[in-house]
Amino acid sequence: MSNKETKTDVILIGAGIMSATLGTLLKELVPEWEVKVFEKLETAGEESSNEWNNAGTGHAALCELNYTEQKPDGSVDISKAIKINEQFQLSMQFWSYLVKRKLIHNPKDFIMPLPHMSMVQGEENVAYLKNRFEAMSKNPLFKGMEFSDDHGKLLEWIPLIMEGRSVNEAIAATKIDAGTDVNFGALTRMLFDHLKAKNVDVKYKHSVENINRTSDDAWELKIKNLVSGNIERHKAKFVFIGGGGGSLHLLQKSGIPEGKHIGGFPVSGIFMVCKNKDVIEQQHAKVYGKAKVGAPPMSVPHLDTRFIDNKKSLLFGPFAGFSPKFLKTGSLFDLVTSVKPNNVLTMLAAGAKEMSLTKYLIQQVLLSKEQRMEELREFIPNAKAEDWDLVVAGQRVQVIKDTEAGKGTLQFGTEVITSADGSIAALLGASPGASTAVHVMLEVINKCFPEHVKKWEPKIKEMIPSYGMSLMENPELLHEVKTSTAKTLGLSASEKKELAFS
Ligand SMILES: Cc1cc2nc3c(=O)[nH]c(=O)nc-3n(C[C@H](O)[C@H](O)[C@H](O)COP(=O)(O)OP(=O)(O)OC[C@H]3O[C@@H](n4cnc5c(N)ncnc54)[C@H](O)[C@@H]3O)c2cc1C
After folding, report:
1. Which strands sit side by side in the sheet containing 146-148, from one edge to the other?
2. CA-CA 20 to 30 A from 447: which of 1, 283, 410, 500?
3. What is the pLDDT of residue 500?
């Protein structure tokens, strides 16, 4: 056992999209800072950020109905959708900057243009979708959205979904061509290649086991080299815990008071993947439906065209499920060992409140293939079981904390937890997820480096022209940003991408 000890400016734990984004931002802002990354798996982007572990939706709130709730008077509140769209625009601008500067290449390897659609059935839902369309289509952020409840039009848009339906069925959809499919796994790997080229020391097969504050105001990490079995100790002035589902345990180990009274609840995901080329070819959109009553927002069913490895695929899901693991490669003891004296009451309160969710998740785990096919047939009436296989997706650990809404409240968003002195930050939660990585990492930078942010602002604005501004309130800037990012990322109609569909 060696006891090697080193000290650096920044340590990023985990090689997912969040660490990749923070590392890349910091290397642009302060190239001279020394950055190290420790990842317990063999390569980058193998957990939730991997292309097969998430749905690859560039979440801009164009199609996700859980961001646009119906108010009691029937009108639709689009404020959440506006917020998420604005956040996604920050990611688009940053990715564009990286492509323009040739820091990453071939945007078609990580982002593709793809219509985003919402689809609902039943009179009541059709009325809701129409109200939502009316509220959204007036907003410049959602320009270009179309609505139809005409079977002929819908057949043109979504032939696979419309075939085999009665002409009397009340069904409607909205469509917006400005949507995207994002391969977050490919993007994560590209960003790590770029970080290595910038002399960032990325250590794979290194598991962070403990985090302690030292007397010289640094953080000391106890790290196990999983190849040699040696224990290493590395010190840093600033630590980002970007361990995905592994972040809660690491936050607890840091002992910071801000990390207390917080728990985690894992929700797993399963997709159905189509293996019939003819069926795959009939769909060219992401089509989001409405969540079932009692279902958590992250299990809204959707039928997605995906572009993975230059190949068109078709996935349906995710079906939610329950596993006590916090990472797909995690341990069955993750949930139990996350319960500490300081969060046990919070966890128990959540357990009592969320019995129906737990029941729902267990029911989902027990679904047979034929029962899953029945859910798929709500989208594709003629779907055949032999055309579809099951694939296990990533784990999402939802945050449980005490809020004004009560003790042990389950959160469906993302939480950045930082120490009072800004020397350590952790990211918990997974929604809207990778799409808003740039917004969330800018939040980390603002909270942890307030003394530098003023000086860094011109560079941040160079990378992200709309930083600190509302695009909705600046239609000219919105137009400029959208045109420029679409051109650079190859998303505009004139930039049609060549794809070898196989
Ligand atoms: C089913 C599903 C569907 C999703 N769909 C979408 C979508 O359509 N669009 C979207 O934007 N987002 C989506 N998300 C969310 C998105 O995938 C996540 O928000 C994002 O990938 C999280 O990135 P991360 O870097 O925080 O975590 P991860 O990608 O999980 O990376 C964390 C890394 O930390 C490592 N690690 C953990 N503990 C340690 C340790 N102790 N020592 C060293 N390394 C450690 C892990 O091995 C892992 O590589 C989805 C997620 C799931 C599960």
Report:
1. 146-148, 171-176, 116-121, 286-288, 302-308, 311-321, 262-274, 388-403, 406-410
2. 410
3. 38
Per-residue pLDDT tens digits for 385-407 = 999 999 999 999 999 999 988 89
Q: Which backbone phi and psi does 363 adopt, to 5 degrees?
A: -60, -40
SS3 of residue 149 by DSSP: coil
440-452: average pLDDT: 97
Cβ of 244 less than 6 Å from ligand 1? yes
Mean pLDDT of 322-346: 93
How far is it, in rounded angstroms, from Cα 409 to Cα 16? 27
The per-residue pLDDT for 2 is 47
The alpha carbon of 47 and the centre of ligand 1 are apart by a number of angstroms equal to: 5
Residues 6+ apart with CB under 8 A from 439: 87, 90, 91
CA 327 to ligand 1 center in whole angstroms: 8
Strands (DSSP E) found in 46-179 = 69-70, 76-77, 111-113, 116-121, 146-148, 171-176
- Secondary structure element (H or E) that encloses residue 287, with its range: strand 286-288
162 Cα distance to chain centroid: 29
- Note the pLDDT tens digit of each residue in 251-291: 999 999 999 999 999 988 999 999 999 999 999 999 999 98
